[in-house]
């Protein structure tokens, strides 16, 4: 696990410096005044919007509210001018600004919305940039497979351009190299870095290209380190150091010194690694870079602990935690508490280890990324295991396994399998222990590096040479040879019998497992069929009740009202009687309106006769007419839903209806944005209000929200709910479209 922790700290450095948004240097006052003047003097709306984006991009990070105001103003101008490419640029900048503030879920949301917008307006260049940023967002959140998918899509689009942007291509290859390294596709990672270096060599050298070259060198060195090709990795990092010395980039030198130290640490050269960490620490302290200082302190503490200098290690951990806390850097606090807790665990101080790891877990949960969360949860589970609390350990392992992508063969997954094996042995559940030992062994074989494979081949060759020597010696001693031959035959027979027994046992287990799998599939199918039947029955009953309310009760009320009207005309009633008749007429009218409203809620007429889009618009108009809540709608597509399953249209309508009802009843909002976008095979529902918000760290789901989540889960959809108290709430829902399955005529079953 020590190796895992060492790699974790290195991963943080790569995420902070290896790739991501282009961190613009803070603009001078003169430059900001010039940008403000350009905004003030520009008369063309689209150009004024672009000037506002430039100004927002150059503002210091402390001026976040001003930047968001400028982007909103620019977006309004782009909408009025129907400049959709300008809107795409606004979404791109929103994603970058939130990423810089480490608000990763918000950055991912804006990048995803921007991609949908770029798709709808055919802005391929904007889509490439947004996909690259989306890959960055997914990677830092721990979803590396989605990150790779987004980066590959961006690369595929960029490669189709008649004149591809070489810098973007280089950056994409650099990004893919980092992602593949994280997924342990090390040879593919090297190939991407080499392609990026080849493209960079075609550019005219400038300061920007030199910095790009430094990043490629450093990231390739990291992959070489994982391949245990330490000499090449050090050479790459030293080449990056030479370039940074020529550029006078002292802050970059700090990063490079850190990377060289990590390589030396991986090569078990702890003393040399400490020398470079000290150089890095001196630069980060002099330049007042608290993030880099704290990260270096954590790395040094880990080395001192491995050298059994525990007091020094603990002192450095405490200093790193205080520094990270002073700048409220939750990601760095998680790293420091995690490494500190793991070191304490290795020292047998389990109570203190648990305290630090639980704090690290809190920071990981607040950060929103599953990768860091799973790593810390695994180590904390081990602490509970070693403390004898097997139930807590098992719970943490189960949560980690549930949220882990088992197709990505990481160190943490292999560690988790080993811990689950130990847990099974401790509990006496040897079937479970054998299962996880098998998975552990398979993963261990798959994760052999190229150098390890070479070492195995060398050992095999040496074995063959030794075997030949033994055979020559045996030929000179005939008697000994015969005994050995008999022994080998006996061993072979025993091994063959053991292999056959193992094959028979394995085959029997496979048949049993296949049978259990078929039973589970049948149970799942039965559950889905039952749920579908219940949905059909519910919609059918809704329609039946709505029809009877509208046709029978409504008709009876209308007749009653006509009779009352006629009674007022026919009788010479007193003023008091006429007043009672008028009151009765009003009550009958109110009852008729109520019956009609209930009928429309149960089964909207527009949904049945005009389709989903008209029904949603009718619902929006009804709420806007009431005047308590202003709804702004933006619906893209949904013009031809005739091929969709009727129940799917009903479900989409009920989802929108439920969220509007919740907003009216609970949010206290004055404005609600509803955006529905139809894609090729799915739909996106985005709703955002300005109400009192919710605390997403608590489970605030009522019955309506629980039913809403069940409906979305039934259609294999996804829902994201986010918000803060008094800052509004947004909901993002994705649903795969359910279409009517065509009937195949003339099939054998029909003949």
How would you characterize the largest beta sheet? 5 strands, mixed
Note the overall shape.
globular
How many individual helices? Answer: 29
Tally of extended strands?
5
Q: What would the average pLDDT be, to the nearest integer?
A: 79
What does it look like?
The chain contains 29 helices and five strands. It has 751 residues and is mainly alpha-helical. Among the domains are: 477-603; 610-736, Histidine kinase-like ATPase, C-terminal domain (Heat Shock Protein 90, 2-Layer Sandwich). Strands 1-2-3-5-4 form a five-stranded mixed beta sheet, with helices on one face. A hairpin with a 5-residue loop joins strand 4 and strand 5 (729-736). Helix 5 (84-100) runs antiparallel to helix 6, helix 9 (166-182) packs parallel to helix 11 and helix 11 packs antiparallel against helix 12.
Features:
29 helices, mainly alpha, 751 residues, 5 strands, disordered N terminus, Heat Shock Protein 90, 5-stranded mixed sheet, disordered C terminus, 76% helix
Summary of the model, kept short:
The chain is mainly alpha-helical and 751 residues long. The chain contains 29 helices and five strands.
Helices and strands in order, then pairings?
Blueprint: H1 2-17, H2 29-41, H3 45-58, H4 64-80, H5 84-100, H6 104-121, H7 124-140, H8 144-160, H9 166-182, H10 186-201, H11 207-226, H12 230-247, H13 250-266, H14 270-286, H15 290-306, H16 310-326, H17 330-346, H18 350-367, H19 370-387, H20 390-403, H21 411-427, H22 430-446, H23 450-476, H24 478-570, H25 575-602, H26 605-609, H27 612-626, E1 630-636, H28 646-667, E2 671-678, E3 682-689, H29 703-714, E4 718-723, E5 729-736
Parallel strand pairs: 1-2
Antiparallel strand pairs: 2-3, 3-5, 4-5
Helix pairs in contact: 1-13, 1-15, 1-17, 2-3, 3-4, 3-5, 4-5, 5-6, 5-7, 6-7, 7-8, 7-9, 8-9, 9-10, 9-11, 10-11, 11-12, 11-13, 12-13, 13-14, 13-15, 14-15, 15-16, 15-17, 16-17, 17-18, 17-19, 18-19, 19-20, 19-21, 20-21, 21-22, 23-24, 24-25, 27-28, 28-29
């Amino acid at each position: 696990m020590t190796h895992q922790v060492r790699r974790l700290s290195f991963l943080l450095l790569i995420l902070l410096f290896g790739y991501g948004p282009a961190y613009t240097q803070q603009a001078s006052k003169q430059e900001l005044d010039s940008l403000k003047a350009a905004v003030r003097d520009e008369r063309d709306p689209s150009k004024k919007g672009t000037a506002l984006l430039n100004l927002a991009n150059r503002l210091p990070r402390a001026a976040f509210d001003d930047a968001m105001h400028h982007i909103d103003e620019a977006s309004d101008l782009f909408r009025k001018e129907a400049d959709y490419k300008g809107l795409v640029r606004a979404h791109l900048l929103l994603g970058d600004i939130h990423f810089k503030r480490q608000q990763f879920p918000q950055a991912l949301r804006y990048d995803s919305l921007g991609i949908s917008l770029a798709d709808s307006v055919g802005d391929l260049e904007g889509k490439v940039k947004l996909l690259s940023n989306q890959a960055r967002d997914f990677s830092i959140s721990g979803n590396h497979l989605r990150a790779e998918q987004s980066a590959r899509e961006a690369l595929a689009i960029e490669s189709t351009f008649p004149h591809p942007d070489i810098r973007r291509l280089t950056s994409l290859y650099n990004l893919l190299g980092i992602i593949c390294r994280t997924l342990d596709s090390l040879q593919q990672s090297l190939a991407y870095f080499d392609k990026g270096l080849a493209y960079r060599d075609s550019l005219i050298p400038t300061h920007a290209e030199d910095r790009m070259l430094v990043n490629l060198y450093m990231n390739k060195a990291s992959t070489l380190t994982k391949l245990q090709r330490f000499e090449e990795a050090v050479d790459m990092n030293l080449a990056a150091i030479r370039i940074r010395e020529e550029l006078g980039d002292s802050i970059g030198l700090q990063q490079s010194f850190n990377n060289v130290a990590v390589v030396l640490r991986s090569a078990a050269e702890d003393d040399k690694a400490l020398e470079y960490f000290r150089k890095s620490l001196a630069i980060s302290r002099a330049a007042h870079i608290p993030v880099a200082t704290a990260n270096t302190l954590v790395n040094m503490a880990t080395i001192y602990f491995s050298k059994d200098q525990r007091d020094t290690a603990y002192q450095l951990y405490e200093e790193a935690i205080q520094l990270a806390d002073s700048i409220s850097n939750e990601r760095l606090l998680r790293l420091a508490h995690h490494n500190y807790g793991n070191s304490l665990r290795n020292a047998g101080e389990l109570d203190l280890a648990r305290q630090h790891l639980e704090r690290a877990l809190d920071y990981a949960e607040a950060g929103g990324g599953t990768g860091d969360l799973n790593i810390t949860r695994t180590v904390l589970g081990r602490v509970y295991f070693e403390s004898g609390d097997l139930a807590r350990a098992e719970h943490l392992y189960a949560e980690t396994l549930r949220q882990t992508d088992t197709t990505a063969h990481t160190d943490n997954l292999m560690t988790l399998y080993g811990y689950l094996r130990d847990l099974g042995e401790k509990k006496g559940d040897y079937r479970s222990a054998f299962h996880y030992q098998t998975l552990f062994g398979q993963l261990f074989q798959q994760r052999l590096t190229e150098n390890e494979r070479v070492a195995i081949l060398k050992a095999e060759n040496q074995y063959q040479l030794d075997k030949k020597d033994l055979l020559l010696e045996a030929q000179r001693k005939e008697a000994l040879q015969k005994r050995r031959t008999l022994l080998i035959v006996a061993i072979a027979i025993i091994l063959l019998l053991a292999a056959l027994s193992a094959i028979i046992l394995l085959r029997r287990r496979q048949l049993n497992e296949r049978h259990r799998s078929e039973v589970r599939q049948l149970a799942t199918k039965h559950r889905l069929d039952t749920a579908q039947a219940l949905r059909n029955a519910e919609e059918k009953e809704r329609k039946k009740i709505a029809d009877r309310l509208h046709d029978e009760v409504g008709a009876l009320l209308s007749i009653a009202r006509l009779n009352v009207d006629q009674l007022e005309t026919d009788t010479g009633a007193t003023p008091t009687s006429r007043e009672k008749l008028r009151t009765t007429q009003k009550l009958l009218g109110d009852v008729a309106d109520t019956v009609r409203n209930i009928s429309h809620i149960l089964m909207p007429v527009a949904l049945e006769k005009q389709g989903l889009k008209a029904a949603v618009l009718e619902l929006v108009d009804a709420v806007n007419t009431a005047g308590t809540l202003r709804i702004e709608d933006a619906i893209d597509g949904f013009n031809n839903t005739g091929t969709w399953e009727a129940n799917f249209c009903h479900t989409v309508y009920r989802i929108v209806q439920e969220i509007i009802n919740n907003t009216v009843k609970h949010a206290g909002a004055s404005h609600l944005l509803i955006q529905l976008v139809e894609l090729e095979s799915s739909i996106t529902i985005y709703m955002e209000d300005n109400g009192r918000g919710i605390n997403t760290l608590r489970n605030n789901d009522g019955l309506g929200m629980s039913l809403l989540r069940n409906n979305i889960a039934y259609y294999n959809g996804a829902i994201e709910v986010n918000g803060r108290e008094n800052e509004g709430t947004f909901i993002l829902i994705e649903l795969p479209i359910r279409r009517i399955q065509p009937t195949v005529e003339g099939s054998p079953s029909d003949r």
